[in-house]
Design goal:
Helix content: 10-25%
Radius of gyration: 19 Å
Number of strands: 9
Low-confidence stretches: none
Order of helices and strands: EHEEHEEEHEEHHE
Oligomer: single chain
Distance between the termini: 22 Å
Length: 243
């Protein structure tokens, strides 16, 4: 049995997230369907993580197992021919059987995009906001995330999460233009809805609703009800997975 990694990009607009669901269209199901068709076997893939409904990925990594070697370049080409237009494969490559798309990953990075001036070309992949934001304050608060390891305040309620511990290694706002920014955050793992809740709480800091100290108290309190709103999914991208 050989193990292969596959890196893919997708526009999550039409999907109920990455993970196979009984009553929803998923990216994982599409990838499994196409792999099974091309390899003439019942292929199951395991992803590096989950993305929620409407969330995009510039680089999601998954693995699958199959007997015998395959032509990686040819499989990549054929997958891109039969996958839907909103999913693309960047690469397929063989790895050691001990490698695991989820458990071997050492970090994941997400970007969340916002813009403050109406722009028809950003509306599908960036969140439009119409109030002034104090980005230096937001960056000051974001930097504090690196000093904590429990992010229960940003975890969606009533999930099967066994621990709310994460190690955040990067958290910052980056300006793209006079009216557009993205929030970059890297960690060893993320909780469900965590990035969108972090962004919503940082937006409250930027609007003056919370001070930096208040933001820290929200993190320390570990209560989802004390944090900001969950921001819309369409502006969130899984940017990278590192092994």
């Amino acid at each position: 049995m050989k193990r292969y990694f596959v890196s893919i990009s997708y526009d999550g607009t039409a999907y109920h997230g990455w993970q196979v669901q009984p009553n929803g269209h998923s990216v994982q199901a599409e990838l499994q369907r196409c792999l099974s068709t091309l390899l003439r076997d019942d292929i199951s893939v395991t992803g590096a993580g989950r993305t929620d409904a409407g969330v995009h990925a510039r680089c999601m990594v998954a693995h699958f197992d199959i007997e015998g070697p395959i032509d990686e370049a040819q499989l990549t080409y054929k997958l891109n021919r039969i996958l839907p237009r909103d999913i693309s494969v960047q690469k397929v490559w063989e790895v050691d059987n001990e490698m695991h798309a989820r458990f071997s990953a050492v970090s994941r990075t997400y970007y969340y995009y916002i813009h403050t001036q109406k722009d028809p070309f950003l509306r599908a992949y960036s969140c439009e906001l119409h109030y002034p934001l104090d980005f230096p304050k937001m960056n000051e608060a974001a930097a504090r995330l690196l000093h904590y390891d429990d992010f229960g305040a940003f975890c969606k309620s009533h999930t099967d999460t066994k621990t709310t511990l994460c190690k955040v290694t990067q958290a910052r706002w980056v300006q793209l233009s006079p009216s557009s920014w993205y929030f970059e955050i890297s960690a060893n793992r993320f909780l469900r809805n965590m990035v969108r809740a972090v962004v919503g709480t940082l937006i409250d800091v930027g609007r003056g609703r919370l001070s930096v100290d208040d933001f820290c108290k929200v993190v320390e309190g570990k209560k989802r009800t004390e944090a900001g709103e969950s921001m819309p999914a369409h502006a969130l991208f899984l940017q990278n997975v590192t092994y």
